[in-house]
Design brief:
The protein is of the alpha/beta class. The chain contains ten helices and twelve strands. Helix 4 packs parallel to helix 5 and helix 7 packs parallel to helix 8. The longest helix is centred in the N-terminal third of the chain and has 17 residues.
Length: 307
């Protein structure tokens, strides 16, 4: 069996920044450091940080007054910052800069009097945070069929999107919006992040050549789930796994080529474990398939820079 390893894969710059933020905060301030929600959507990463002294909470009222609290990479609504100030928390904002960009766009469109259509998944933390920037101006939709049911009172309409969506599916929604609202305005630069696009491009390439594609990522990871869907649409059987222990050998029956990739919140050591699982079965023909080179880095939050 041949193993194709997609590149790029794994950590994006925003996830790398968020994980390093927690590790740096623990080193500078000592344990415990509290983190609102999962810092990134990966069970292994969360457990690793917990072992180092991070305490993950659902809401800030679970954090002792005056303590250090980190906000996750997915972004939060303005009311969360207000809650932090009310509890005198020393907040460290690990929001991905590309999510912050969408928040800025939401505030700008709203202040200019636009009705905003947000393309995204209901209940996702990033969507909740973005909608919190202008709740009276934003309507959430997920698929092209939702466009017909939009009832927008004004003539000024704009759209934004969650950063971790399927590129192809989002383009279908945008096309439906442009047909319904010919004057609709979009963001100056598209919202789906570079890493999401690159990983989807890479998984399409390996899915074209593979019988089965394994996507390493947790079930609550939006971008990982999209990778599995993109691989399936491209013609390969596709499975989302947290690690090698979830591989069912029956998936590989009759397969001559298997592809491996990982979501933007999955660390590279999980990929190594999956590749080693195949090598342990005697599969040593491993080829990395690179479609684009990435060289994106984000600085740490200003609160850590000052510290």
């Amino acid at each position: 069996m041949k193993v194709l390893l997609a590149a790029p894969r794994g950590y994006c710059a925003g996830v790398d920044r968020a994980v390093e933020t927690v590790e740096r905060a623990l080193a500078q301030f000592g344990a415990p450091v509290y983190v609102r929600k999962q810092i990134v959507h990966n069970a292994h990463v969360v457990r690793d940080l917990e072992s180092k002294g991070a305490i993950f909470v659902e809401e800030l009222d679970e954090v002792p007054e005056g303590a250090n609290a980190i906000l996750s990479a997915h972004g939060v609504a303005p009311e969360v910052y207000e809650q932090a100030r009310g509890r005198s928390l020393q907040t460290i904002d690990a929001t991905c800069p590309l999510v912050t960009k969408v928040h800025f766009e939401a505030r700008k469109f709203a202040s200019d009097g636009f009705d905003i259509v947000l393309i995204g998944h209901e209940g996702h933390e990033e969507v909740i945070g973005t909608m919190g920037e202008a709740p009276s101006s934003i309507t959430l939709i997920e698929k092209p069929a939702d466009v017909d049911s939009l009832d927008l009172p004004g003539n000024k309409v704009a759209y934004l999107s969650q950063t971790t969506l399927s590129v192809d599916e989002t383009n279908e929604v945008i096309a439906a919006l442009r047909e319904r609202f010919p004057q609709i305005q979009g963001p100056p630069r598209e919202d789906i992040c570079y890493a999401t696009q690159n990983r989807q491009t890479a998984v399409k390439e390996i899915a074209r050549r593979a019988d089965v594609v394994l996507v390493i990522g947790s079930q609550n990871s939006s971008n990982s789930k999209r990778l599995a869907e993109v691989a399936r649409v491209a013609g390969a059987e596709s499975y989302l796994i947290d690690d090698e222990t979830e591989i069912d050998p029956a998936w590989l029956d009759g397969a001559q080529t298997v592809g491996i990739t990982s979501g933007a919140s999955a660390p590279e050591w999980l990929v190594d474990r999956v590749v080693d699982w195949f090598r342990g079965r005697g599969e040593t023909d491993v080829e990395e398939v690179r479609v684009v080179h990435e060289d994106v880095h984000f600085g740490l939050p200003k609160e850590l820079d000052r510290a």
